[in-house]
Amino acid sequence: MKHVIVITGATGTGKTTVSTYLKTKYQIPRIITHTTRPMRLGEKDGVDYYFESDASFSKNHYLESVTYAGYQYGSSYEGLERAFEKSDLVSIVLDTKGAETYVRELKQQAFILFLTVGKSVILHERLKDRGDQLEMIQSRIKSKEYSRDLTLPEALKQMATVIQNDDWKQTQDKLAAIVTALKTPSL
Ligand SMILES: Nc1nc2c(ncn2[C@@H]2O[C@H](COP(=O)(O)OP(=O)(O)O)[C@@H](O)[C@H]2O)c(=O)[nH]1
Ligand SMILES: Nc1ncnc2c1ncn2[C@@H]1O[C@H](COP(=O)(O)OP(=O)(O)O)[C@@H](O)[C@H]1O
């Protein structure tokens, strides 16, 4: 069966780091999503996101789309199909609302991976270290979406796998077990 590893959780918990690691270590492609948020230093159009204007964003066909901290984000059916052409196991980085939609739409094909950290103050430090602008960090942390995504939503509790991503080595070991299980054909 084809699977999408849906990586979700609050800003700074390591979602992008995990999806990049899955790609380099296990050749698991990531579905690239669309956003109207400005590009961060080091990001590339078509690699990190398809960066859109409000006008171009509205022209795509979305499986789901959300507003997160004032910007629009969306994942397309075409992006999912393109990733599935490359591999039966792919990943996507979504907020928890998008993760809930993915479960409704893809059912058993969606594997939910919720990332968290022991103390949320760690997240502020990580965003500073990542080089985010102070203004962006402050508005992000004040957003209702950020607070919401610190906790695993009720609707995902039954099926989600939770990784507390404090120690990167431990996270790598947990990811290895998950990838092995998902690559093992079920009887
Ligand atoms: N629902 C949904 N969420 C998305 C999509 N693309 C990115 N996100 C989420 O939007 C939020 C903000 O992403 P971003 O601005 O890149 O900041 P990040 O939290 O540091 O990764 C994160 O929770 C992402 O997982 C999408 O297509 N749909
Ligand atoms: N286990 C970890 N320990 C320390 N720093 C981490 C860990 N995982 C990720 N990071 C760092 O935290 C920052 C935020 O990670 P990122 O993957 O961009 O988070 P997200 O995509 O969830 O916003 C990055 O600078 C990343 O290198």
TrEMBL record:
<comment type="similarity">
    <text>Belongs to the guanylate kinase family.</text>
</comment>
<protein>
    <submittedName>
        <fullName>Guanylate kinase</fullName>
    </submittedName>
</protein>
<dbReference type="GO" id="GO:0016301">
    <property type="term" value="F:kinase activity"/>
</dbReference>
<keyword id="KW-0808">Transferase</keyword>
<dbReference type="Pfam" id="PF00625">
    <property type="entry name" value="Guanylate_kin"/>
</dbReference>
<dbReference type="InterPro" id="IPR008145">
    <property type="entry name" value="GK/Ca_channel_bsu"/>
</dbReference>
<dbReference type="InterPro" id="IPR008144">
    <property type="entry name" value="Guanylate_kin-like_dom"/>
</dbReference>
<keyword id="KW-0418">Kinase</keyword>
<feature type="domain" description="Guanylate kinase-like">
    <location>
        <begin position="2"/>
        <end position="180"/>
    </location>
</feature>
<comment type="function">
    <text>Essential for recycling GMP and indirectly, cGMP.</text>
</comment>
<dbReference type="InterPro" id="IPR027417">
    <property type="entry name" value="P-loop_NTPase"/>
</dbReference>
